[in-house]
Amino acid sequence: MSLSRRGLLATSALLGLLAGCGARSHPGGAATRPTLGPPTPTRIRYGTAAESQFAELGMPPGSPLGTVVLIHGGYWYPQYGMELMRPLARALNGLGYASWNIEYRRIGAGGGVPTTLEDVAAAIDRLEGDGLPPGLTTGVALLGHSAGGCLAVWAASRTGDTPGGASRVPVRGAISLAGVLDLTRAASSARSSGPVTAFVGGTPGEAPERYAVADPALLVPASCPVWAAYAEDDTVVPPEQSLRYVDLARAAGGEAEAVRVPGDHLTLIDPGAESFATIRGLLTEAVI
Known about the structure:
Mean pLDDT: 89
Strand order of the largest sheet: 1-9-8-7-6-4-5-3-2
Order of helices and strands: HEEEEHEHEHEHHHEHEH
Structural class: alpha/beta
């Protein structure tokens, strides 16, 4: 479906948190437009229970440097899907990465906690299944935007007690792009309480057991390094979401870093934006 910048910004209005610390400022560098990969990725199903249980596999011209799992945002609403991440997927293919752009069930279409989390877990685990090119599970990084940033860091924090169980695919790093990384605090914000409580299935007081298995901030530390990138002009997701998570992860003994980049909420997923140079560098750290 055709998405407008105004529409995404209006739907994704987010969160207020206490300010954190520990951020490192990264210059974006010159904007880079990599050679685009194959125009048509291969659609692979990872489940049969829902129309949304599939992923798009894009491959580079040669052997992949690694595999980047892309998880789109849109506040878990069904009107936003994996098309948000397709330009980024093609750019990554051109840079030598395999892309695994996943779709999942969303609010009002069978999604929420735990089903959305189960979908994300199953989609990642599908990388080790039959019928895929060899080597896709060597050098896996998770990259999610906005609500997808929440899902990416959540997936890096999976255990035997979270929906979908512990990951069957080793993950080297997770990159959150303006991720909603503290659901508990988001649920108390007047601007975000509606979609967050709809996604989780209640407030923290009403459904503490759901927040315990869904909130990345309550699952620290993750099993791999986490980079929490935020845009300096983002008016949708405040930097405190990234900064607060990094503080909590480090306090729990995890490896996490807050990374400030130029731009706004949507330029974070634009491969032609100034911020992409930094994101590309983070992927190199995570995968290679």
